[in-house]
TrEMBL record:
Pfam families: ECH_1. This is Polyketide biosynthesis enoyl-CoA hydratase PksH. Coiled coil: none annotated. The lineage of its organism: Bacteria, Bacillati, Actinomycetota, Actinomycetes, Streptosporangiales. InterPro entries: ClpP/crotonase-like_dom_sf, Enoyl-CoA_hydra/iso, Enoyl-CoA_Hydratase/Isomerase. Transmembrane segments: none annotated. It comes from the Bacteria. Signal peptide: none annotated. It comes from Nocardiopsis terrae.
Length: 252
């Protein structure tokens, strides 16, 4: 790889025909916050602006691919009128951008981290990969992540996984649909896919993804509604009480 640049929550490096965005806060379990969202959005823009780039790879340093939103730090705001929240915007961009987006998950993807992976065109699971939607345990629902997870797994499996906060290990991930391929060496799995993806030109990818979007559209206004559901539950006093009890248990 060449051209590595570090800064903030995401480290970027370039290879032949691809850009790699590495979530780089292993000490904090790579949480979703404004810094991460900005860093990944900038990575999408950089990939789009590079005519030679065909693939954007998302991966992470440490034992956690992404731990989701830090709910104790999350602010309770409002969804812009008729608009969407930044997390939803990023998932939509990963789905629709003209480059192929690949999530290499070789650690824990939790809550919103599952949605981040699921929004990518391909999900590759290394041996340490674990996927778990945990929102229901604290009185939330994965309102923004669920449509992207369900697109992969089917709605009933996504519903089941949410209700039970089911942990899906690497060896099960392909069978559930949350991952497209798994292997004992995540980096080797990625290298092989980059070779295969290099055979498809960017224009073809762009048309294919646009067609997929028309063939399987999201309901109109879903992003706005998903943000409203998330913020409404986050502001609920009962949810805050669950957070406080969980914080106390962790401190004991």
């Amino acid at each position: 790889m060449t051209g590595t640049s570090r800064g903030g929550a995401v480290t970027l490096s370039r290879g032949r025909g691809f850009l790699r965005a590495v979530m780089d806060r292993a000490d904090r379990r790579n949480p979703i916050d404004p810094d991460l969202l900005d860093g990944l959005a900038a990575a999408v823009t950089a990939a789009e602006d590079d005519a030679a780039c065909r693939v954007l790879v998302l991966s992470a340093h440490g034992e956690h691919f992404c731990s989701g939103t830090d709910l104790w730090e999350a602010s309770v705001g409002e969804v812009p009128s008729g608009g969407t929240l930044p997390y939803w915007d990023l998932l939509e961009r990963l789905t629709r951008t003209q480059v192929v987006t690949v999530a290499l998950v070789d650690g824990h993807a939790t809550a919103g981290g599952v949605g981040l992976a699921a929004a990518c065109d391909l999900v590759l699971a290394g041996p340490r990969a674990r996927f778990r939607l945990t929102e229901a345990l604290v009185g939330l629902v994965p309102a923004m992540a669920l449509p992207f997870v369900a697109r992969r797994t089917g709605q009933q499996r996504a519903f089941y996984s949410t209700l039970l906060a089911e942990e899906i290990a690497a060896e099960e991930a392909v069978g559930t649909g949350i991952a497209d391929a798994a292997g004992p060496d995540g980096e080797d799995l990625l290298r092989r896919h980059l070779v295969w993806l290099s055979r498809v030109d960017r224009a073809t990818v762009s048309v294919l993804k646009e067609y997929r979007g028309r063939l399987f559209p999201q309901p109109e206004g879903l992003g706005n509604y998903a943000g409203e559901v998330f913020l409404e539950l986050l502001a609920d006093p009962r949810t805050r009480e669950r957070f406080d009890r969980l914080r106390l248990r962790r401190a004991e």
